[in-house]
Amino acid sequence: MNLIVCFLFQIHSLVNQIYPVSIEGIHGKDSSTDSGIQLGTDSLSSCDTPLGDSTTDTGDSDCENETEDLINSRQVVEERKGYIRRVSSIRATELLPLQRLLRNRPLPEPLPQIDHGKKHEEGSLFDNLLIIGIRRDEKTGAYHPIIKYKFPHTATLPDGIERFCFPDSLEWPCHEGSTAQFYTLTVTQSDGSRRYGCCYRILPDGANICIPIAYCIITQTRAIGFYRNVLQILASRHGYSESQMDFLINELYEESVPDPGKNLMFQDPISSLPTSSVDYGMGVPLILRRKADSRLENTDLHLFLNSLDLSTVLKLFGSLLLERKIILLSRSLNLLSLCVEALESMLYPFSWQHTFVPILPLNMNELLEVPAPFVIGVLRSEVVPWDVKLDEGIVVDLDQRKILSCVGDEGSILPKRFYKKLREALQSVLALFEQTENTKNVLISECFIRMFVETMGHYRTTALFDCSTLHPTYERKQSGDVRVFKKEIFLKAVSSKSNRDFLEWFCETSMFQQFIECRKKSDFKPGLFEQRCVEQLELNKDTNSQGFTGGNVPWKNTSILSKGTAWFKETFYKERD
Hints:
This protein is an alpha+beta fold. The protein has helices at about 1-20, 65-90, 95-105, 160-165, 225-235, 240-255, 300-305, 310-320, 335-345, 415-430, 435-455, 460, 465-470, 485-490, 495-505, 510-520, 530-545, 560-565, 565-575; strands at about 130-135, 145-150, 180-190, 195-200, 215-220, 265-270, 285-290, 325-330, 355-360, 375-380, 395, 400-405, 465, 485. It has a five-stranded antiparallel sheet. A five-stranded mixed sheet has the order 9-10-8-11-12, with helices on one face. A two-stranded antiparallel sheet has the order 6-7. A hairpin with a 5-residue loop joins strand 3 (about 180-190) and strand 4 (about 195-200). Helix 1 (about 1-20) crosses helix 19 and helix 7 packs across helix 11 (about 435-455). The longest helix is centred in the first third of the chain and has 26 residues, at about 65-90. The protein is globular and about 70 Å long.
């Protein structure tokens, strides 16, 4: 147990050492040279010189150059604000091309809501479970995905969903071999809400022909690692009779999604008895534990950072924040899917509000012509050659580990100091060779969270006000808002010009608007991000009272240390005891 305690302290200390408690230029002295970043030597030649950035900044600029920099930075802010407002205005129509592609019909129709076959409570384990196979067309010789099994049996599904469950069916035999593969999909419904799909492809034991099947779960909850474990349980019982499988799937269907750190308990039919004599009221109890922190169940961020150099990762991160088009390319279903999911994970506490497709089925490249932001994973194919050019986005080849095309200013999207600190933090995490991939996944997530805490964690204490306090006669609107966000106050609270410029255009993004709207509601429940903001605020107060102004601030207040490690203790005690 003492070793675990030491381990927890080391993790939390590491994150705080990487990010100094007080960063000059955030709430302290401003710098006229903090308008861009100094790109590292691993930058790619096609995008080495960011627009409006200076890679030869010496800090000796004269007044004329400083004035020119101020004009240029103002121009960049206004251009980015204009871009964001423009792409946000077309969000309502960006789904229509996807709807037409799903149906292969000339006229757009709303994507139907998933009918679960019965009224299913929100928070249930899953909405639908599908088993997808492929069938060869005798006339053309091409393979097409088919739904071999669905649960509930009466459920109505969106047309064409099997193409996303088996996105590479047109290129068969598969170039990846017969090993088990896990990947994801996203179902966007007509009201803009999302359902998340997790797929696990296997080659059935004893199959005479090497044609795999895919188990797919459609759910309301984004918990990739947990559902991967559920799918592995189901796939390992592929030899069950239809009645036994129905019993097992129904057992799971009736359960709710366990809270983090809790168990999923269900009955497995007694498979050792003849099918006719199985008493399905009596099964073998099975327990599947959900991790106390879902990030411990995943390795998406760790895999992503090991698939690309950090310069490319941070350029992708900047493109995400500016809500540009992003395409990742790979021949691997698993790698492509998890890296696209990692892009979403990096954004926490924000979420991508535009089109999001982890793996685009082959021959559906028309979707890439949508004039709105998207994040899409595209399979490398010998059947469908890659010839897409993006005018406002970035294309990255995961297999070749390089950028194929970009705007050119990706390196200057993040403020210079935060780019540098985030890069140093990620390098430090990747250097922890003694830690597991799951632990590194958590630490990588914490690095991105800390950046958001440092840039905008003050929103709660400076710019979010109770409506009744500001307006005594205020009556709650139908929207349910009980708080008001003051953007001007939020921006004025930041002394660094570069950080203020960044926040000025970032406040215009759809993800920031959704972030604030959620926190204006009466039913909003603070999460991990708010916890980190409070911890950082307390730490800043403590270190300032002791005269610390920056650098690697040592822990002096044991009460703050205990609060700061509370989450780590809760997580790692449960997972390692």
